Amino acid sequence: MVTKTIADPPPEPAPDAESRSSLVDHVHAAWWREHHATLSEFVAVPSVSPAFDSAWAAHGALVATVEQVASWLIERADLPGVTAQVLRLDGRTPLLIAEIPAYAPGNGADTQDPPVLVYGHLDVQPAGGGWSAADPFRPVLRESTLYGRGTGDDKYVPVAVVSALEALRAKGRAHPRVVLLMETSEESSSVDLPAHLDAHGELLGHPELIVCLDTFVPDAETLWHSSSMRGIIVADLSVAVARQGMHSGMAGGVAPSSFRLMRSLLDRIESSETGICLLPELHAEVPAGHRDALLRQVRRAGGISAGLPLLPGVRPQATGPADQLIAQSWSPSVAYVGVDGMPPTDAAGSVLRESTTVRLSIRLPPTIRAAKAAETLRTVLEADPPSGAAVRVDVHGAEDGWSATVPDGLRSLLDEAAAAGYGGPAAECGGGATVPPLGILARRFPEATVIPLGIVTPASNPHGPDENIDLNAAVRLTSALATLLANQVKQ
Length: 491
Prior knowledge:
The chain has about 500 residues and is an alpha+beta fold. Helix content is about 30%, strand content about 20%. The strands form 5 sheets. The protein has a 7-stranded mixed sheet with strand order 1-2-3-7-4-8-18, sandwiched between helices.
């Protein structure tokens, strides 16, 4: 554990209306003066998630990123008493737990009150290709946009938390004790988080509010909070027909093509004409309350397709805005994200290949149990192999989704936070991605309210080339977070 303690600064006067309104100004100045540079330093560490880097322990980037953030946290002179612990378990990715003491100007602070737990992650997706604005791990600031892998997903989180708490203290406003949890396996379905919670869960206390800063939002002009996130199955479907590749002139028309058989198998789970998943076990009804929320989202933000980089003339599968939101957040969808067994076209000879493997990434409705759905998928694809081929399904991950409703009392606090940062009320949205920590933390702390907030929009292109964060959006979210935290102080 690394700890640094500095004497508390003298209390500032109680905030008046003018100092309250200047909270955003303080946050804005901090982000533009130093925080974007700090975030750039965090992004420069290529902390690729273990699912994409089997040698992560030898490479050392995951340990480096948590140690980097821990050191930065304890050096914040405006946040005295911060503790930061880099936690390690054999064979597991490292975890950072930091605690920022409560603050109350002039009257001390009750450190026994339940903390607010803020979640984020420091592992990232692989760099990938297609970058034009920056090198993935050499961030570039252009106007108000900072480009780099992990900028908005999710290395901004410690910066936003520190900025929010420092702004509150600078304006003489109290804040509760905050526990910051940063893991390094989220992009690998948070495979190591449960083990860390079993071993170190007592360090998190008993939070009544959990803020997860790792969700996608429709736009950067509103404080959106997600009411649901989809589950996911990640699996490899392999079809093998021969011991080795064969000359297509000799074997073509006689030996079955592994690719053709793959096509026939995929037709069992998805319509090639409509893109609709054909497995009824993977579908679920949209609860009335969530459907109403999606309709409100449509009226406020429209559909999904307008924000996607589709080529001119490409028609989306779902056309109406409401249908698009339901398809994105409550319908199963199949994506083919990788292929093995095929050489690149400039090295492809006239060979009938011995096998084809496709990586499937299947999103599930929030209420579908992922493990059961994965068994259904395996049964359907492995039954009655076409042409007697060797067919195998290897499931690499099956994570449940999450759905919840916000208590009425917290809705008003979210609206107040939104007014401070965005100048308008908060809004509810559905989520198409999968954030396993939501379910993990909700099960660990069943009495707590979990609020997913985020900063990445379709324009942020998380996981893709030119991933970025807009500093103006960061200012808005940080200001809203500061107000939300201030309102958690027990009176």
